[in-house]
Amino acid sequence: MNKNTPIDYEIVTSNINKVEVDDLTDATIREIVAMVNNIEKETGEKFIRMEMGVPGIMPPEVGTKAEIEALQNGIASKYPMLDGINPLKEETSKFIKNFIGLDIAPEHCMPTVGSMQGGYATFMLASNLDEKKDTALFIDPGFPVQKMQFQVMGHKYASFDVYEHRGEKLRVKLEEYLSKGNINSIIYSNPNNPSWVCLTDEELKIIGELANKYDVIIIEDLAYFGMDFRKDISEPGKPPYQSTVANYTDNYILLISGSKAFSYAGQRLGLVCFSDKLFMREYPNLKKRFGVAGIGYTFIQKLIYTLSSGTCHSAQYAMAAMLKAANEGTLNLTNYLQIYKEKAATMKKLFTDNGFNIVYDKDIDKELADGFYFTISYPNMTGGELLKNLIYYGISAIGLKNCGSNRTEGLRACVSQVNPNQFADLEKRVKQFKQDFAI
Ligand SMILES: Cc1ncc(COP(=O)(O)O)c(C=O)c1O
Question: Ligand 1 centre from 116 Cα, in Å?
Fold first, then answer.
């Protein structure tokens, strides 16, 4: 390898050697973050940081103001109710009507400590509904820490990479798992972290139909709400709406995160929304396991109570205010988030002009949307080799291998932390990369 790399060769090598993995694609996001922090500190050079999905924009002022006001009114001294403050529940229900076109009663919308907790609690619920159904099914690639949640809970999961199973083929693949009778739930994010694949309405319909046929719960993770920029859902109460499986089944739980759509990641606020019908359902095994049969009741009074006893009181006021602004049309989500699309378009071009390929490149017959993430590979390199080599060129990302993808040659690139004033550096670095690793 050419040792005349943009970032000091010896410093990079010594830092890579300190990460306790044989292949860098096995490193967690946080391990890559720590490694790059060290290299930046030791060399004084700035990286093109694409490893972590930190929102790169300021949160809407209306949210921050509402939270400050709530704190000034002394809300910090009061325990929040387990199921959330009424204004937040009301605005969530309206938001769902306005931007997804669905009716969900305010009582069935609950705040959680980020969608991380929403996932943990709903995965635990789904894993305890029926003794025979002991396995959750991920439509991968996916967000690695959700698998870690299963590992921590000691519950089982299965998964497959959706890449080869798009469209009608998805039905065949799902039935292969569901027909065994041990699956309790299907979990996916849409738009997808890490691939930015967006399931089509045809695919969501297949998932919904199978949820009805096999009586499984769909946990639809909408962490990137409204961010399939190919359709503008930003006008309240008017189609097009956020795509969802909820149009095809009542067996659903939606996870909506405040982190990306509202840049409120630091305050850890997510929303868990049960379909009205599912919330009221009773399961004998829940009664055996937790002493209560109702799924909605168990979620609030057993799981949320024991996990955190509610969600940060002041952050709930922030989220209520931001949702209200979106509902009333004074906060336009699409305009607010547009920067991610613009950055992705430029960055993807810089990579593909210099020999890189986009790994997940199509939603069946449509070009993938530009958004928060995209995926890259380079000819004749494994994901581990590519990630390692890119570090010497001051570019960081994470491997797709850790995300349940079969495309182990690929990396996930996140656009949020990259400043447009770094595009010139990115171009210089990928150009040199192409020269040094001639195809
Ligand atoms: C698909 C997916 N689900 C859930 C989360 C977690 O969201 P939160 O910050 O609300 O806990 C993320 C965050 O990156 C994500 O990408």
Answer: 6
